[in-house]
From TrEMBL:
Record flagged with keyword Repeat: yes
Protein name as annotated: F-box/LRR-repeat protein 12
Binding partners and assembly: Interacts with SKP1 and CUL1.
Domain F-box, first and last residues per copy: 1-47
Chain's role: Substrate-recognition component of the SCF (SKP1-CUL1-F-box protein)-type E3 ubiquitin ligase complex. Mediates the polyubiquitination and proteasomal degradation of CAMK1 leading to disruption of cyclin D1/CDK4 complex assembly which results in G1 cell cycle arrest in lung epithelia.
Disulfide bond in keyword set: no
Pfam families with a match to the protein in the record: F-box-like (PF12937)
InterPro entries named in the record: F-box-like_dom_sf, F-box_dom, LRR_dom_sf
Amino acid sequence: MAAMTDLPDSVLLEIFAYLPVRDRIRISRVCHHWKRLVDDRCLWRHVDLTLYTMRPKVMWHLLRRYMASRLYSLRMGGYLFSGSQAPQLSPALLRALGDKCPNLKRLCLHVADLSAVPITSLPPTLQTLELHSCEISMVWLLREQDPRVLPRLECLVLDRVPAFRDEHLQGLPRFRALRSLVLGGTYRVTETGLDASLQQLSYLQRLEVLGCTLPADSTLRAISRHLRGVRKLRLTVGGLSAAGLALLEGMPALESLCLQGPLITPDMPSPAQIIASCLTMPRLRALELQGLGWEGQEAERVLCQGLPHCVVIVRPCPKESLDWWM
């Protein structure tokens, strides 16, 4: 049986890539060979630090010693619920990411208190910004802000960001590179705010509205008015009716549609009504139904037969979607 020392470097690198950052650094002390491998660029392109309560001193060491120009995507936790003594994300640290990591394209922040962090501290190279259960300053994302902030931002994910509201949504059109927007549990966004904002965001290619207080019909109405070029849609079905779904009929660019539970209403479109609407969408190639209670039933067979040009996926609602309603 071959020992670890007999494995080629390419296989060892594959194994090391599955290790958490802390263990990856520990194994670098085993021998000079492993130390050299742990220093390989490919191991530091995608870094996940959400497993740790990372002290600032350790974070600065990782930034200088391992990440720097190698880093492409980073996930970090801000320990919002860990007490006042927990380390917090500072403007200086975020600015250092921009200065020392010129190839950083994706930043995912979890449970972070960013209320005292200016948005100007974020790395200007970012193409994707994800905020999960974060607190943000009320002056973030407003249209009056410096237009040079995040000039390359293409994808913005706002997942349970309680401060996010209509004023922030209406400030997003200043991100001219923005093509993908995910709103998850942003309960302060209103129907009026969504409609007014999408009018200015007509260039969006992907939109997800999940677990918000917005009725699905009103969301689809705003989409059909302003996002004629949208390619991917995902939304929860609360308040969805057959008449609301019909608003998407004839959408010229729509390629992927996902309707997601768990809230089902008596007016929910039937499989036959869904087929009728989807057949009017010339480019639709993927239909996904999650958590509608249809998985494993006759409805899936009917949908597959009625939409032979589409990949039809019928499955239970993912756990993270259930969390939005708890």
